Amino acid sequence: MKSIIVAALLACCTTVQAADLDIAEIRSFHVGGRQVTLQGLPVTEVPFSPGSVPFRVDPNGDYQTGQMYVQSVVLARPRARYPLLLWHGGGLTGVSWETTPDGRPGFQMFFLRAGHSVYVSDSAERGRSSFSRSPEIYKTSPLFRTGNEAWSLFRIGPDGSYTTDPASRTAFTNTQFPIEAFSQFGRQTVPRWLDSDPMIQAAYDELVQKVCPCVIMTHSQGGLYGFQAALRAPDKVKALISLEPGTPPNPKLVTNTLKGVPFLIVWGDNIDKSTYWTKKIPPISDYRDALVEAGAVVDWIDLPKQGIMGNSHMVMMDRNSDRVADLIQDWMVRQNLMQ
Amino acid sequence: MKSIIVAALLACCTTVQAADLDIAEIRSFHVGGRQVTLQGLPVTEVPFSPGSVPFRVDPNGDYQTGQMYVQSVVLARPRARYPLLLWHGGGLTGVSWETTPDGRPGFQMFFLRAGHSVYVSDSAERGRSSFSRSPEIYKTSPLFRTGNEAWSLFRIGPDGSYTTDPASRTAFTNTQFPIEAFSQFGRQTVPRWLDSDPMIQAAYDELVQKVCPCVIMTHSQGGLYGFQAALRAPDKVKALISLEPGTPPNPKLVTNTLKGVPFLIVWGDNIDKSTYWTKKIPPISDYRDALVEAGAVVDWIDLPKQGIMGNSHMVMMDRNSDRVADLIQDWMVRQNLMQ
Q1: CA-to-CA distance for A194 and B50, rounded, in angstroms?
Q2: Distances, alpha carbon A71 to alpha carbons A3, B71, B98, B120, B322, in Å
Q3: A162 to chain B: which residues are within 8 Å by CB?
Q4: Whether A257 contacts A291, CB under 8 Å
Q5: Do residues B81 and B238 make contact, with C-beta atoms less than 8 angstroms apart?
Q6: pTM
Q7: Are A100 and A231 in contact (CB under 8 A)?
Q8: Which residues of A touch B184 (CB under 8 A)?
């Protein structure tokens, strides 16, 4: 009997490898948006594929616009108190969190393994959230980012150091970005529009109302949406982690409703070598001061000051992404965000 | 000792609920595409967000174009012989497979639970695959689908039966589509371009070379890409399941390299009430005949002839989606595609 039980125990437990994830459900949905009806546009006949039966295309009718795509991976037995929402930066989508460009597991997998159910979204207008006709619904044209711009804006190399020939590019000597995978990273780039902040924020606010209480982790442009979400739903946002936030809200908007809410702001390396990012720090610093004044718990981490050198703006993709994630997970433990 | 082992056994095995999924890894990547360099375009200065530091936008430089986004969910212990690739239809993305519009688990979850590792992609130009500047890279403008068109094209209701007011719409009396969730479905709509078939096919062909041998399931426009992928890599495509395929390749392209390859073609209901779909059947039927002639194993299922009534074009979203998935899974078992 004992040997049967031992055999059953071994058979059972070899099916629970430490490395596997026990998932209750993977699902997706769209939040936010509204219906718009267009009228008076010309009707055409087009084949959907070459040689296909022509189809009458009447653009007059109802469109959904402003919605946001969200994919959730829910653990069977989460060890975190709240789900973790990952909000990407400008010109990108939720793909930022999924896998590093050189093929290592991304922050999505790291935090799933650390015990968090994870929600990854694409900002309204980007990726699976879709965009709308212009000029009838969207009033402006999209902006497309070049590899040249990404290379310096994301602090992989100094301003002006990008060249089309990868062999001639100059990265920061200490860069942690996997530069051999830069074109794979470039494939993640999506267009953005410059007048869409209110639409994007509205969808994020609706997501918070739908799935929170939660912890939110933002990157870059997503920082603004996260700071604003915390202002609008201080009871629902149990912690906010801002990786290299781009632009803060007006500090005057901060009130003591944020008292006790933990904030973590994380910065990579080589900021002093970037004209753009050097200008970005003071407004975020002022916003930090307003949060502290209001009684929030704010931690500000300059990775180089902790001896973690060479991180680009894309910290979740850098070679040491697991080390940065470990540091964030440790912070979450200290903030009592794990069960 | 015995009681300790029994306690350990119970503690261990209550962590393996039948309903949970044991996942080795969730990851994503982009395949295909190429780099394009643009020159001679005007430079502008714009703030990324209102009030943000203006940023110099130089559109001259390198862009990635034509790439395709793929997300894989790999089971720790798959029971299928090959991974299952899910290729969506026109004007949509991989979201089609993730969850039904009324919130039930989609085909992705069904086939994961049935023992398949699943790869969901967004056709190049759509969703997380991104699109490119026009007229410099893309030569044409995108086509945006109205709810009006989707309602009849996807055979939820007869031609001309859509109205903006949901209460006044007339669906087919036997429809299985969850019409109360039609606006949630509309939020999944993305624009498409009409001259992009070769670009999309190239990315799918590269995916097949990267991750197959595999089984491919296509929907609607994806049918063409699946049929062509099987023609180009008959050794890699171990079976092809075409849900309501839109347009076939030229039947003259079929050769006996496809001998023994199993094909399943599935049709919903109310096709005789749709001018568009009535015209779509004969070319697919001719292609089926060419496959049979070449020695392929072809099953053609009209769901209503099996007593399964009311399916729309969006069979994976219909209320009876699990029943249709069961039928497909049974077919895969019979084709010896499970271990």
Answers
A1: 8
A2: 44, 12, 9, 13, 21
A3: 61
A4: no
A5: yes
A6: 0.93
A7: no
A8: 29-30
A165 touches chain B (CB under 8 A): no
pLDDT < 70: residue spans in chain B: 1-19, 48-51
Tokens standing for residue A306: 């902790």
Rounded-to-integer distance, Cα A276 and Cα B53, Å: 8
Taking the Cβ of residue A47 and every Cβ of chain B, the question of whether any pair is shorter than 8 Å is answered with yes
Q: Do A133 and B149 touch (CB under 8 A)?
A: no
Q: Which residues of A touch B130 (CB under 8 A)?
A: 127, 187-191
Residue-wise pLDDT for A66-116, tens only, equals 999 999 999 999 999 999 999 999 999 999 999 999 999 999 999 999 999
Residues in chain A with CB shorter than 8 Å from the CB of B28 are 95, 98-99
Residue A332 has, within 13 A of its CA and on its CB side, a CA count of: 28
With CA atoms as reference, report the closest residue to A122 among A248, A34, A32, A212: A32
On chain A, the residues whose CB falls within 8 A of the CB of B36 are none
Cα A205–A207–A208 angle (5° rounding)? 65
User: pLDDT over 90 for what percent of chain A?
Assistant: 88
**CA A120 to each of CA A21, A37, A227, A233, B67: distance values in angstroms, whole numbers, following the listed order:** 17, 30, 17, 19, 21
Tens digit of each residue's pLDDT, chain A (339 residues): 444 444 444 434 333 334 689 999 999 999 999 999 999 999 988 876 666 777 788 999 999 999 999 999 999 999 999 999 999 999 999 999 999 999 999 999 999 999 999 999 999 999 999 999 999 999 988 999 999 999 999 999 999 999 999 999 999 999 999 999 999 999 999 999 988 999 999 999 999 999 999 999 999 999 999 999 999 999 999 999 999 999 999 999 999 999 999 999 999 999 999 999 999 999 999 999 999 999 999 999 999 999 999 999 999 999 999 999 999 999 999 999 999
Asked if A147 lies within 8 A of B197 by C-beta distance, the reply is no
Q: Between vectors from CA A233 to CA A227 and to CA A235, what angle results, nearest 5°?
A: 115
Task: Using CB atoms, pick whichever of A76, A127, A276 lies closest to residue B17.
Answer: A76
Cα–Cα nearest to A210, from A328, A67, A76, A62:
A67
pLDDT of residue B19: 62
Burial group, residue B336, by CB count within 10 angstroms (0-12, 13-18, 19+): exposed
For A47, the closest chain B residue by CA position comes to: B194
Residue A109's closest chain B neighbor by CA?
Answer: B26
Residues A69 and B190: their CA atoms lie apart, in Å, by 12
Amino acid at site B252: K
Q: Are B117 and A20 in contact (CB under 8 A)?
A: no
- B146 touching chain A per CB within 8 A: yes
3-class state of residue A19 by DSSP: coil
**Residue A263 and residue A284: Cα distance in Å, rounded?**
12
Q: Enter the DSSP assignment of B153.
A: H
Structure tokens that stand for A329 in this block: 């997970």
Reading the block at residue B262, the tokens are 């199993």
Tell me the two tokens of residue A79: 């060890």
Phi/psi-derived region of residue B295, left when phi > 0, alpha when psi is between -120 and 50, beta in every other case:
left
DSSP 3-state assignment of A71?
strand
